[in-house]
Amino acid sequence: MADDGSKENSTWPMPKFRFEVDLGTELKGVAFQEVSGMDKDVQIIEYRKSNSPLFSTEKMPGIVKYGNITMKRGVFVNDNSFWDWMAEIKMNTIKRRTVLIKLLDETGKVTMKWQLNNAWPTKISSTDLKSDDSSVAVDTIEIAHEEMIISNG
Asked: How does DSSP assign 4-29, residue by residue?
């Protein structure tokens, strides 16, 4: 079938400005200004087989490490959800959550989803305050997690 130039037959990269976050609470679709740090790193294990004729190592995948996710959002009146979640942390005890980060298309349909399993906050930074600045007050939360599952649609 010939390409008629329609959108259905074209593949375009997704814009990154339309997304929502589900923090695993009653707050669904929380609006964030920025989400970053969705990294996955696989440790390299170098091993040389004893019967290998080559004088070099073989590289194998080892332990997987995930980077902490950093999220920024505006400060809202009477909304202390970040701080309340952080206050739940006690020595070696934390209520872990499943956090969903969803990339949306122009119609609001989910096109890509990052699922963070066993997530919990490690750091919160409140906004800076300046008398000569009229920008929005922004809180930042850093979240650790143990697994990231990426799915489409």
From this structure: ---GGG---PPPSS-EEEE-SSS--S
Nearest Cα to Cα of residue 101 among 29, 10, 2, 45: 29
Q: Is the separation of the CB atoms in 23 and 30 below 8 Å?
A: yes
Residues 6 or more apart in contact with residue 43 via CB below 8 angstroms: 61, 62, 63, 64, 65
User: Which token pair is 106?
Assistant: 């122009």
Question: Whole-prediction pTM value?
Answer: 0.77
Structure confidence by residue, pLDDT tens digits, 1-36: 444 555 555 677 777 788 888 887 766 667 788 999
Nearest to 148 by CA among 107, 104, 118: 118
| 14-46+54-152 topology per CATH | Pnp Oxidase; Chain A (2.30.110)
Instruction: For residue 138, give both structure tokens.
Output: 């922004």
